[in-house]
C-alpha cells in the first residue's frame, strides 16, 4: 500500500466517527454543517483572496456563509430562499463597501458567490434531508460520497487507463467512475439491509433505489470534484487547505458531496414525497 494511501486511510478513520456521531440529533447536525461550511469557506477565501490583504472582508464573508445553515436549520427552514437572498445581498454589500479596487471586485463577487451557493447553500440540504427523511437517509447521503470516492480511487488506481478529464483532473478515469458507481451500488444494498434488519428504520425506500442512488452519486460527485479542480487549476493550487492529511483541506474532502446532497434531496422529494 502506498504511503499516501495509508495517510488518507488513517486521516479518514479519525475524522469519520466524529462526523457520524453528529448525526445523533437535529441540533448537532446543524452544528456540524455550520462547522464544515466555516472550515471549507475559510480555506477557499484564504487560498484565493488573502493575497489582497483584506482580512475584514474575509471575516465578514465567513460569518455570513456560516450563519446560513444555523439560521436556516433553527428558525427559517420554511423560508430558505428568502434567508439566502438576504444573506447573499449582505455579502454583495460588504464587497461594494470594503473593496475599493474595480480590478479585483469581480473576483471577490465570484469567490463569495461560489462559497455561498456551492458550499453553504448546497451543504445545507443535509438539514431538510435530516428533518423530512430522517437520520438514516441523511447519513446514507453522506456515506454515499465516501463510498463512491473510495471505490473510484481504488478502481482507478488498479484499472484506470482512459482519462476522464485531462484538463481539470488528469488522475480521474472512466474505469474509476464506473467502478465507483458499481461499488456504491453494492454499498447501498448493504446499508439498506443493515438499517432495515438491525435498526428497524422505517423508511419508504426500497432496495431498487440503490441503482439511482449509485448513479446520482457517481455523476454528481465527479462533477463536484471537477468543479473544485477547475478552481484549483485557475489558482495554481494542489489542495485548498490542509485540514485532512492525505486528503487536502475540508473543501477537497466534500467537493463531490456538495453536488450529491441537493440532488439526492430533490430525487427523494420527487419520488418519495
Automatic annotation (TrEMBL):
Q: Where in the cell is it found?
A: Cell membrane
What is the predominant subcellular site recorded for this chain? membrane
GO MF entry, a single one? nucleotidyltransferase activity
What EC number(s) does this enzyme carry?
A: 2.7.7.41
Q: Which UniProt keywords apply?
A: Cell membrane, Lipid biosynthesis, Lipid metabolism, Membrane, Nucleotidyltransferase, Phospholipid biosynthesis, Phospholipid metabolism, Transferase, Transmembrane, Transmembrane helix
The UniProt catalytic activity note for this protein reads: a 1,2-diacyl-sn-glycero-3-phosphate + CTP + H(+) = a CDP-1,2-diacyl-sn-glycerol + diphosphate
Name the pathway it acts in.
Answer: Lipid metabolism; Phospholipid metabolism; CDP-diacylglycerol biosynthesis; CDP-diacylglycerol from sn-glycerol 3-phosphate: step 3/3
Name the Pfam families for this protein.
CTP_transf_1
In what way does this protein cross or attach to the membrane?
A: Multi-pass membrane protein
Instruction: State which residue ranges cross the membrane.
Output: 7-26, 57-77, 83-99, 108-127, 133-155, 176-194, 206-227, 254-272
Taxonomically, which superkingdom? Bacteria
Q: Report the family membership.
A: Belongs to the CDS family.
Q: What is this protein called?
A: Phosphatidate cytidylyltransferase
